[in-house]
Design a protein that fits this description.
The structure is a homodimer of 348-residue chains.
Chain A (H helix, E strand, L loop, with lengths): L5 E8 L3 H14 L4 E5 L4 H7 L5 H7 L4 E6 L9 H13 L4 E7 L17 E7 L3 E10 L7 E9 H16 L5 E6 L5 H15 L6 E6 H10 L6 E4 L1 H14 L7 E5 L7 E5 L16 H13 L3 H17 L9 H13 L1
Parallel strand pairs in A: 1-2, 1-3, 3-12, 5-10, 8-9, 8-10
Antiparallel strand pairs in A: 4-5, 4-11, 6-7, 11-12
Helix pairs in contact in A: 1-9, 1-11, 5-6, 7-8, 9-10, 10-11
Bound molecules: 3-isopropylmalic acid (IPM) (2 copies).
Chain lengths: 348, 348
């Protein structure tokens, strides 16, 4: 980063999005980053007001920022899928967020539903492909609503798309103590796509002799997330399998309230976008009940992406300390109070 | 059933398959069913010997049985996917096993990795569609091995295929105390297929006013399997999502050593096939270490399918009693000993 301000686009979105983003920005400011934020009112209310989800002019404007912070999108008043596809997925595809980076890490002091697991057992990074697979939206429907209806979905996978995310994953694995990379797929059933993924990992692995690789079918991997999470260090997987196992990962690592993510364009041809893994949770919106921790950890990922590694580490450390404290009295703090407490630790 | 013998085709398969099937048959005999078994040597060794996986004449012969009991297929000496696709999946498709029935039930006395869950929290039945979706094998590859490779997989879903399994699921839900049916899919991304599934559940639900329905995205459902399994009673889902969540279900319900399944053709136009959810586990094959319980519970499902409900209940009861006993000394019993102990309880 040069010394100019970070230009950040903020999309609070729907439901609890605005509340958690407020706390994320509070922490971002406290860390001392010079940041200039512009808020975009994308989401359900704009959709209802204007019928638009993400107009092209807004998309073009967003392209000019250094990064995007997103709260959550989705509201029961909007037909399911519209905001997800035309806003969230559109940004991922248009900005070529081919790395969806999702750490699965059990912080000390955090309760996991897995009775026998300790923090050292659950410490992985899932690298989910973000621009291909079943998420491309290909497919169709024939004779809709009749007894003869046929509906298809097509998963599209390219050497170009798979290789770049696999390379990113090897680099990530190389930088971690265990240096282990697991491919998760379903090669015995998805033979065409699975073969491309497996061959790509094999080929690129020749360039990374220090990284150990292995392979799990997605069904077996899901089982091991619960029974032996210590098997995993860095995981690379396709868009849909990554969607499923990262929610599962969030569950075993203390819940969706703590799971952060980055939709990353490593080539920096467009801004990367950081967001909590959780959704808009309309049932608890506006009540100060949402946990802003996932957003604050997403801010740490954002700082890291901008090269502000020291700042990123300070935010993560502040969260880690707060999580240890939480073992008593956690339920009684509001969204703001959690944000304030973490902010105070960042300031030091 | 008329009073003639049950004609059962047995496919022990690979790895631990033969060992667990031996115990399953022991229990089947002990329960007093008049059963005539014929063993088929399908699997890795036949493949190596003859190059064949499932010759058409064998397929036709199998069609004549009342049911099939399968141990496990798959061996490291055979290229991945061959036995799975040309044997296991071929049988499911050829014999129209459109219901893949997989109970996820925590028996009293069994340890679950979920620290806080009790048997009453984990008691569901997953009904996985078995003849459509991404399992049809559609797709292709272009420019294989070049930087321009494209690999596709197509999920095919029909009103015919979805409706029949959804109807089965409603009937199943109606017969259970909670009368609750959850659809698991990913309607916000797989819009064509998801729409067909969701509309079908909505439409059929009008005929089942006593069954409550709800919907979960597969990612959220995976999380809830771990954090709140008590949400689920009967689940209906597509082939791939069912594959993933039933392995996850096996993990939370005490492990893959206990998970039974039935590949069912409810119209009885071909034999149904019963098999443990686990694989061939070549690493422990031939050592008497495999747990035959999943196979024995699959035998209970087989009995139930044949209308021998009292016999099925006796087998399940024997397993339940054995599982309570296991809390001490479990690890020390061999495959045979477990089979013998359960058999002794069946005999009474
Ligand atoms: C909202 C939905 C489209 C999205 C996805 O499936 O990617 C979400 O589940 C996620 O994981 O970010
Ligand atoms: C072996 C494999 C093809 C199979 C499947 O994916 O259905 C297995 O995982 C299962 O669940 O029975």
């Amino acid at each position: 980063m040069d010394s100019r301000n970070v230009r950040l686009a903020v999309i609070p979105g729907d439901g609890i999005g605005a509340e958690v983003v407020t706390e994320g920005l509070k922490v971002l400011e406290a860390v001392g980053t010079k940041v200039e934020t512009t808020t975009y009112d994308l989401g359900a209310s704009r959709y209802h007001r204007t019928g638009e989800v993400l107009p092209d002019v807004v998309l073009d404007e967003l392209r000019g920022y250094d990064a995007i912070l997103l709260g959550a999108v989705g509201d029961p008043s909007v037909p399911p899928g519209i905001l997800e596809r035309d806003l969230l997925l559109k940004l991922r595809f248009e900005f070529d967020h081919y790395v969806n980076l999702r750490p699965v890490k059990l912080f000390p002091g955090v309760a996991t539903p897995l009775g026998g697991s300790r923090p050292e057992d659950i410490d992985m990074v899932v690298i989910r492909e973000g621009t291909e697979g079943l998420y491309v939206g290909a497919g169709g429907v024939l004779r809709r609503g009749t007894p003869y209806e046929v509906a298809t979905q097509e998963s599209m996978n390219t050497a170009y798309g798979v290789e770049r995310v696999v390379r990113y994953a090897f680099e990530k694995a190389l930088g971690r103590p265990r240096k282990k990379l697991s491919l998760i797929h379903k090669t015995n059933v998805l033979t065409f796509a699975g073969d491309l993924w497996a061959r790509t990992v094999d080929r690129v692995s020749l360039e990374y002799p220090d990284v150990a690789t292995d392979y799990y079918h997605v069904d077996a991997a899901s089982m091991f997330f619960v029974t032996q999470p210590e098997r995993f260090d860095v995981i690379v997987t396709d868009n849909l399998f990554g969607d499923i196992i990262t929610d599962l990962g969030a569950a075993v690592a203390g819940g969706i309230g703590l799971a952060a993510s980055g939709n990353i364009n490593p080539d920096r041809t467009a801004p990367s976008m950081f967001e909590p893994v959780h959704g808009s949770a309309p049932d608890i919106a506006g009540q100060g009940k949402a946990d802003p921790t996932a957003t604050i950890l997403s801010v740490a990922m954002l700082l890291d992406h901008l090269g502000l590694t020291e700042e990123a580490a300070r935010v993560e450390q502040a969260v880690a300390e707060d999580l240890v404290e939480r073992q008593t009295g956690w339920a009684s703090r509001t969204t703001h109070e959690i944000g304030d407490d973490i902010t105070a630790r960042v300031v030091g």
